[in-house]
Amino acid sequence: MSDQPNPPNQLNIEISEEVAEGTYANLAIITHSHAEFVIDFVNVMPGTPKSKVKSRIILTPQHAKRFMKAITENIQKYEAINGAIKDLEEIQLPLNFGGPTAQA
Q1: Whole-model pTM?
Q2: Interacting residues of 44 by C-beta distance below 8 A, sequence separation 6+
Q3: Structural domains counted in the chain
């Protein structure tokens, strides 16, 4: 460890274990007003009529645009290494997602 202070403009970010585990989402619902963008992340399970929002992120329009640019840049880097990501419309998914229909 160094006793040197952080250089100017360096941000020290911490993450708790719970947050570091992440939350899976396979649906994002985006709404906006004149002052903010709201992104709700949802985990939709096949065969269930109801799903809950797992996480909500609220951004200013400026931060939403920066987020969009960062996502675009990262997708381009990913595809340069791993190949093109197919859109869901291009993938033929079975209606039961490959598994048996769940029963309770």
Answers
A1: 0.71
A2: 26, 27, 51
A3: 1
